[in-house]
Design brief:
The protein is α+β, with helices and mostly antiparallel strands. The protein has 12 helices and 14 strands. It has a 5-stranded antiparallel β-sheet. Strand 13 and strand 14 form a beta hairpin.
Length: 264
């Protein structure tokens, strides 16, 4: 391991100032994405700014027809929250199938979406539910947040503080996990909301995306049969030793059908 400074601020303001005064610094929450990246030398920050000691970032509440979750909430917190289980059971189900118990007790919601790993589960829920991401400087809509592989709309020094998930009429998440890592080879989050139907796909491409053809079909008939014959184009999908782009395209349809069935 190479040398870097480890800093543990007690407030968001202190964290921001440390970021500005420490050159190539990076924020760390649960570290489930960043630590492996450091080990592989894919990132070499001069300082790690640990957000774990900042109070008020891990709460979960239901208000105004939405579930508001602090960025510091652990995956296990979301999976076992009585409020989440009652309001958006699909979100609790998603969180309960992230990684293994160690990952779920360390990884955080904010860290997951800030990293925007192509195979992460949470981005599908954020995009599928049309959530809003609140940061230290603004509020960003889900449709504007995920911009590319490991890329988001976050600016340097900007910290996610909470995510607001509108409570849907119906929703479900189904994924085909890699048997070793449990990352999604393909995961599909389907939600019937007051604003319409949303279908978000993770694991299949370089970043989470909405499947508009399926959304249109489900808006007319929210049934598994509505998406059963929709063939997803494989041209921009991932292809690796775990599965070809064509295989992932097929999985999108299969997981979408299962998600709609589960939503009922």
């Amino acid at each position: 391991m190479y040398q870097f400074n480890y800093l543990r601020p007690k407030s968001l303001d202190e964290a921001r100032k440390l970021f500005e005064s420490n050159g190539d610094a990076k924020f760390i929450a649960g570290g489930q994405t960043l630590i492996p990246t450091l080990k592989q030398r894919l990132a070499q920050p001069t300082a790690l700014i640990d957000l774990g000691a900042i109070g008020g970032l891990a709460g979960i509440k239901v208000a105004g027809g939405a579930v508001v979750i602090g960025a510091g909430a652990k995956h296990n917190d979301v999976a076992t929250s009585a409020d989440v289980l009652k309001a958006i059971p699909a979100l609790a189900h998603l969180a309960s199938h992230i990684g293994d118990p160690a990952v779920r007790h360390l990884g955080t919601l904010g860290g997951s979406i800030a990293n925007n790993d192509p195979a992460a589960d949470y981005p599908a829920a954020v995009l599928g539910l049309g959530a809003e991401i609140k940061t230290t400087s603004r509020t960003i809509k889900a449709d504007d947040f995920f911009t590319g592989m490991f890329e988001t709309a976050l600016e340097d020094g900007e910290i996610i503080t909470e995510i607001t998930f509108p409570v849907p009429e119906k929703a479900a998440y189904m994924k085909f996990p890699n048997p070793a890592s449990r990352y999604a080879m393909v995961g599909v989050f389907v939600a019937k909301t007051k604003g319409g139907v949303r279908v978000a796909v993770t694991g299949a491409a370089s970043s989470v995306f909405r499947e508009r053809t399926m959304e249109a079909a489900l808006a007319k008939s929210f049934t598994p049969d509505a998406v059963a014959n929709i063939k997803v184009a494989a041209g921009n999908l991932n292809s690796d030793l775990h599965g070809t782009a064509e295989y992932r395209a097929h999985l999108v349809t299969v997981m979408a059908k299962r998600a709609v069935a589960a939503a009922h």
